[in-house]
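pasting for the record
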Amino acid sequence: MYSCHCTSFQYPGDVIPFVPLVSVLTTEECQVAVIQSEELLFGSVNQSLSIPCHVTVSACNGLINSSPMMVWYMFKKDSHSQLDLKSQPLKYRLETQHLSIHSLSADDNGVYYCAAILKTVSANKEKQAFGSGTTVTVKENSFTTGHMLLVMLLVLLMLYSLTILSFIVCIKTRGSTLFLQGRLRTSQIKSTSTRRVQFGAVVQELYTKRNLRSSNKTSPSEASPENKCETHRKKEERVTEDTTFK
């Protein structure tokens, strides 16, 4: 004969109730306790999750053939099944008594029960002791593919804006440079013309002063015709006076 201490568990809305769970199994003076310490665990898509389970065996006195064998059950709203740990080694892995689930997805939502199977020596029968169950909820990653596309679009838009801005700045800078070069060239031309005019004025002034000096310096052999006539008249008068006196 064996007896059990039963516990009940409150299920979330998407999981149907199950029969009362055996957390402690006593058979022929052999007692096995299965404890699932976490009632609710959250995971993210494509991540891993570990569901703890602890099994203790006491006062067996050689009444069981071997250590309890660990199995896991998964219950959903419309179905339940035993997890095939051997055929899906990449998905499920049993680490001592804990269950590790890899590459989480929305299909992994449900309640997971840890069970210890006992095989007695006298009756040669298997009996199971269940844990209280752990509810697993898988959440979508906050950074989804849509968010990634949006970020890429924003980055491309930013690069495009920077390219356009750089192009506009280059055009304005080039226009300003050409304008400054034109003004500088015009200023140089005006400066050159001014220097030429000033130089021409100086040369003209020097030339004029030179002509004035030349006209003021008149030699004796270069007497004017009036002076020559006056000299001739005076000579004639002198000759006339000499003739009269005689």
